[in-house]
């Protein structure tokens, strides 16, 4: 019992020192794309893009398109937790649409989250899809799976998608939904709300 108390005390001291040391800013804070850091985040069971966001189309200077609003207009929200991606798409004409994707797997190497859409989603109920993310110029962008989600009835089928065939992280304003009938579509820019 005495050995356990010593180990518990030592662990408490080390944890306290770690927390205390991380209370100070020791340099410029920035988002990281380092695979080792993202892997540690995933290992810890965290979602690297968790948060509550308004989202916009493309970059802030994106002009908009025939079916897409400009980059300075809020087009919806993302509420992303460790277990769920809740997406609301605003539409004044037809009414809002909602997607509720229960997170099945997070792959920080590919920067993708695989989900299964709940039955209370506006569409794709019970099907699987993915949300790919990228960080560019300090901003986080998401591209939802715009491929043929209705045929993805298993996690394996969603994971079989060639992410680069359907999305291009180097083209924020026209690199989402490629080869899916929706292209060219902008990536969604996430802004904390």
From TrEMBL:
Keywords: Signal. Residues 1-21 form the signal peptide. The keyword Signal applies. It comes from the Bacteria. This is Lipoprotein. It comes from Leptospira hartskeerlii. The lineage of its organism: Bacteria, Pseudomonadati, Spirochaetota, Spirochaetia, Leptospirales.
């Amino acid at each position: 019992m005495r050995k356990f108390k010593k180990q518990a005390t030592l662990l408490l001291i080390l944890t306290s020192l770690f927390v205390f040391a991380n209370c100070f800013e020791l340099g410029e804070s920035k988002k990281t794309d380092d695979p080792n850091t993202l892997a540690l985040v995933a290992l810890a069971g965290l979602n690297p893009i968790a948060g509550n966001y308004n989202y916009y189309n493309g970059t802030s200077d994106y002009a908009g398109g025939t079916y897409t609003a400009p980059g300075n207009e809020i087009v919806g929200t993302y509420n992303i937790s460790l277990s769920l991606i809740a997406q609301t798409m605003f539409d004044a004409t037809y009414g809002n649409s909602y997607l509720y994707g229960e997170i099945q797997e997070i792959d920080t190497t590919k920067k993708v989250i695989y989900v299964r859409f709940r039955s209370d989603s506006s569409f794709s109920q019970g099907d699987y899809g993915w949300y790919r993310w990228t960080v560019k110029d300090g901003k986080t962008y998401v591209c939802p799976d715009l491929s043929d989600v209705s045929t993805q009835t298993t996690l394996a089928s969603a994971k079989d998608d060639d992410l680069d065939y359907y999305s291009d992280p180097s083209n924020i304003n026209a690199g989402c939904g490629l080869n899916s009938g929706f292209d060219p579509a902008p990536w969604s820019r996430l802004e904390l709300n």
